[in-house]
Amino acid sequence: MLALLTGWMTGCSSNPLKAPPPTIEAAQPAVSPPVSQNPAGAILPLAGHAAAAVFDGGTHQLAVLTPGSVTVFGAGQVPPHEIALPGPATALTGDGNGTAYVAGRGGYVVVDLSAGRTAQMNVADAQGTEFTAIARRADGKLVLGSADGAVYTLDSPAPAGTAAIAVTANRTKIFARVDALATQGNTTLVLDRGQTSVTTIGPDGRAQQSLRAGEGATTLIADPLGRALVADTRGGQLLVYGCCSPRTPLILRQAYPVPQAPYGLAGSRQLDWVSQTASNMVIGYDLSTGIPVEKVRYPTVQQPNSLAFDQATDTLYVVSGSGAGVQVIEHALGAQ
Q1: Are strands 164-166 and 118-123 parallel, antiparallel or unpaired?
Q2: Strand order in 197-201's β-sheet?
Q3: Which residue did the predictor score with more confidence, 116 or 77?
Q4: Structure letter (DSSP) for residue 25
Q5: Confidence class of residue 136 from pLDDT cuts 50, 70 and 90?
Q6: Contact at 8 Å (CB) between 221 and 235?
Q7: Is residue 157 over pLDDT 70?
Q8: Which domain holds residue 153?
Q9: Into how many domains does the chain fold?
Q10: Residue 42: exposed, middle, or buried by beta-carbon count in 10 A (0-12, 13-18, 19+)?
């Protein structure tokens, strides 16, 4: 399949990137109905509607982004603690070793999950930019995506400490909007809901390949086994892409029907997880055979928009986007 990016860059116009790219109405998760089954596992209260969640394996903590704060859930009976952010935030990622990064206007915030400290990092020459997505590469460099369709690859690993300026090493603007970012190694994957596309950005910060992603893609993750997963919410599919090396270009390897508005995604070494927002359900799929095979499913809290998985303890976290709390499902893999 030809990369869409090739067509964008080789058109007859002298400046084919000058005009905004064609878009469709961005897909969204379904508005979940009230729960009809008791959610599996335990439910922890959460103030506010969650926008994102990430599990930090180094400190064994779950970080949940809500408007104005990051709430951190520890192991056992440790009460959660809320870390106030200096301003509105839109996206969350982590380094897996106790630090989270939160995207916002003009830059990002470094969050020490255990100490509760924050540090504002402003991106040079981007004071008014609304950053909508954030990811961290294997080399420690951060990548930010913006509402106006640009991807910023920062020049150096993100420092912790006092307020500072982050320098951009490369800025690629070929998207309608950057809605999600994920990384495999030092390659960045970009999801644009308006174009319902997935694009790879190489270690040098330059765009490589781009493919359409179903009828209305909404979410994107990279799993521990080198795959990229996309929820095609409008088309009712789980899309599985191979990537991200010179020997493994971006290619759609699996497209499997998942009804009921799939949206939330999480990966593990055994199963990959997909939530169904129209039915308050989460399903674990085995992708190892070349076609997704359902292994387990659990009823969830209302509006299961965000998922996270703790590989060490086999615990799946389902985080509600409607204020219904954080669902903790222990031994989630079941009998494999």
Answers
A1: parallel
A2: 180-184, 187-192, 197-201, 207-212
A3: 116
A4: P
A5: very high
A6: no
A7: no
A8: 43-330
A9: 1
A10: exposed
